[in-house]
Amino acid sequence: MAVLDGADLAIETRGLRKTYRSVRGRSVGVEGLDLRVPVGGVHGFLGPNGSGKTTTIRMLLGLVRPDRGTATIFGHEVPKRLPEVVGRVGAIVESPKFFPSFSARRNLLLLADGIGAPRARVDAVLDEVGLTGRAKDRYKGYSLGMKQRLAIAATLLKDPDLLIFDEPTNGLDPAGIREIRQTMRGLADQGKTVLVSSHILAEVEQIADTVSIVARGRLVASGRVADLIGEGAGASSVRVRVAPEDTTIATSVLESGGLLVRREHDALLVDGAGDAAQVNRALGERGVWVRELTPMQADLESVFLGLTAHETPGGHTHRGERTKRGGPPPEPAHSAQPGPTTEVGA
Ligand SMILES: Nc1ncnc2c1ncn2[C@@H]1O[C@H](COP(=O)(O)OP(=O)(O)OP(=O)(O)O)[C@@H](O)[C@H]1O
Fold it and tell me: Where is this region: Disordered (predicted)?
């Protein structure tokens, strides 16, 4: 696991833990989380639904009290010293409330007055998120993507150094997602630190400099995106296509050789394969002839799947079904899949 050592940190948590009480007893939201977010750049805070991202963000912002552990923002312990640092932080955790009949500009002017930000910032932040041309339109006529960009504009009124966005692209169409991504990248390029949570790894992979990947409230990987993917590439994966009637035998041949096999449509994704020749030989020796054999590039999702394969016995991605179940936890194996689908199943 790559660790973000030696960097100046915008956010650091140590052993952060939060449990929730419910009728079914206690459930763990965050379990001993050590998070390190370097100053500057986009940091993706990634993990499946329910892995503790929102809980962590709420703890950082003083909205939820941790059971245990510590958290700092720019070296200030939070929530104890949050008032000292809160002016340097802008966050979207829930959908902010705007007046539907007011224009975006009027909404921001009201907000600026309310939080003591200079009114002159309003036009600057509208420009920053690309809403200048629509600034006089009523909020209620905005698309979801525009509403989200306005929410980001609101967080920028005080010109914060750290921006925290919890799943900012939820519910947006591809064009809206791209706009938010570009906005976040632009903010980081100005020197700000952007912490963005998402359960869609590939979406953030495109703009993140560094990431922390969590599962079940724990950190499973952190580091520079390029390093994590590079480590994943070391344990290569291969896509194999055989005749449909040979799929079952091919799966069992490869699994009996200790490989993790997943079904993807009419192909098999073989993780930890070493090289394609090994797969080809193993199948050929059993009389299974390969129709396609493609070495795959690692991506963040495949890194995540490799690291958490043993933690999600019932889990799957919507890309393909794991065909290997039970047994001892496999060694972290990195696979890769091309294509646009990137959601990670919990
Ligand atoms: N207020 C609450 N009461 C009880 N359990 C909660 C509460 N908030 C979160 N949890 C539980 O804590 C765990 C972590 O949830 P959290 O919302 O932090 O995860 P997440 O990674 O942000 O997920 P998502 O992507 O779905 O928002 C989940 O099991 C969730 O059900």
Answer: 309-346
Distances (CA, A) of 75 to 20, 33, 85, 259: 27, 17, 9, 45
Ligand 1 near 27 CB (within 6 A): yes
Same domain for 242 and 169: no
In short, whether 51's Cβ falls inside 6 Å of ligand 1 is: yes
Token digits of residue 121: 């910032």
Q: Ligand 1 within 6 A of 38 CB? A: no
Residue that has been written with the tokens 């104890």 in this structure:
80
Sequence-distant (6+) residues with CB within 8 A of 116 are: none
Q: Which atom of ligand 1 is nearest to the CA of 54?
A: 22
Q: How many angstroms is it from 85 CA to the middle of ligand 1?
A: 26
The answer on 58 and 198 residing in a single domain is yes
90 lines ligand 1 (CB under 6 A): no
186-221 pLDDT, tens per residue? 999 999 999 999 998 888 888 999 999 999 999 999
Length of the chain, please?
346
Asked if the structure places residue 327 within a domain, the reply is: no
What is the domain extent for residue 51? 9-228
Would the CB of 21 count as within 6 Å of ligand 1? no
In 3D space, the residue among 190, 126, 115, 180 whose CA is nearest the CA of residue 153 turns out to be 126
4: in domain: no
On whether both 296 and 207 belong to a single domain, the answer is no
> Quick one: 51 and 199 in the same domain?
yes
Tens-digit pLDDT profile for residues 276-335: 888 899 999 999 999 999 887 777 887 787 777 655 443 333 333 333 223 333 333 333
ipTM: 0.96
